[in-house]
Every structure is written in structure tokens, then in C-alpha cells.
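User: quick one, fold this
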Amino acid sequence: MSLHIHPTTETTLHALAGYFVARATEAIAARGRFAVALSGGSSPKKLYELLASPAYRNQVAWSQVYFFFGDERNVPQSDPQSNYLMAKTALLAPVGIADAQVFAPNTDLPPPDAAAAYTKEVNDFFGPKPARFDLVLLGLGDNSHTASLFPHTEVLRATTAEVQAVFVPEVDMYRLTFTAPLINQARAVAFLVFGADKAAAVRRVRQGARNAEEFPAQLVAPSAGEQHWFLDEAAAGQLSNSNAQPD
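Assistant:
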């Protein structure tokens, strides 16, 4: 597990953008494609906009990148809450990603059916080998959730690498999410967290007692891959010094 602490939100975003480019270049050279699972929310939106900017857009062979979504809200793809719509607006459309390179859940289906269909789509893409993403991007909620693995939800006890539908009472909504076993098959996982409001959650997940029911992001532990945390100094503010050395 590698910790990357940067002075500001901007420098943190640039560090992760550089890592994204490096992972993409490596995967394309080794396997001819880069399969990445995106996260939703305001933090990754800034990352996607940066990747689509002149500073980075020409550093990636976008025609060989395939996009998936680690979680999605149960809303139409045209809804402002849709992770797909956010990613399309911030990154996919600006860099000219073809529809055939984007694999998004079909939220027109009932949530359990959408989860089953998306699991099949993921497995068909990687088949016959297990689904192993080159990179899974993750955020962290102030309640220590990641993807749509929320505290005290049944999906936390999943033992199969798949997509599941989960009803999240605190947001009164169904969501679709990669299970922890699917995330943990990835070649690399990268958390992006910034802001003082996330500092307590970062401390609980990284240095607190093991309690995945309360702090679901603790479930993320790639079995044969890298795990990186990209933090600004504010988000890292409650970590003990022994575990909070800047890059």
C-alpha cells in the first residue's frame, strides 16, 4: 500500500493524472488495451477534466482505453446524478471515446437485473479469464464508504467477484456496485481523497481498528495488485506521522 501526500488539491490531482497515464501506457504496451473502472462524485470529476485537458489528453492512446464504472446510481443515464453522464461530460466526450469503448450499467432495468447484466458484460469482456481491471479508481466518503459499499449493507459480505444491487437507506436509493472481491482482483487500485472533511475517514480506514462493517473501504486489499492513496495534506491531516510521509 503506497501513500502519496501532496500539498494541495491541484498537486494531488496532477499526481494521480500522471499515475493514470503511466498505468495506461504500461497496460497498452503489455496487453494492447487499458481497462479502467471509473468512480463517481465531485473529486474524480476534477481528475477527468484534468485528463481531458491539453496537459494530458495527448499522453494516452485513448482508442485503446476501455471504460467501466465501479458503481452507479439507479437513475437514467441522462440524470444529473448519473456517474456515466458525469464521466461522459468531463472526459469521454472531450477526448473522443467511441461508444464501443464504454461499458455502463443499463439503469433502465430493475436494479437486480441491471447488476446481473453488468456482471455478464464485465465477465464477457475479460473472459475466459477472471475480470482483472488494470486500474480501479475509488473515492472515499466521510462515512468511510467507497464505490457503493456503504456501512452495514449486505453487499459488504459478498464473496463473489461481481456487480450487485444494493439499497442504501442513508441516501434512500438503489445503487449498483462492484463487490470488494471484484475490486480486489484489479492490477491496481487508486484512491483519490482531498479536503479536511475527509481526514477522519482516511484515519479510520488506514489506521483505525479493523471494522469493515463501519468502515467499508477497509475491504479494499488487492490480492495481487497495487494499492495507492493520493491525498492532499488536508485529507492526510489526522494520520500519525509514521504513516503520513509526503511524496
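User: anything notable?
Assistant: The chain has a mean pLDDT of 96.
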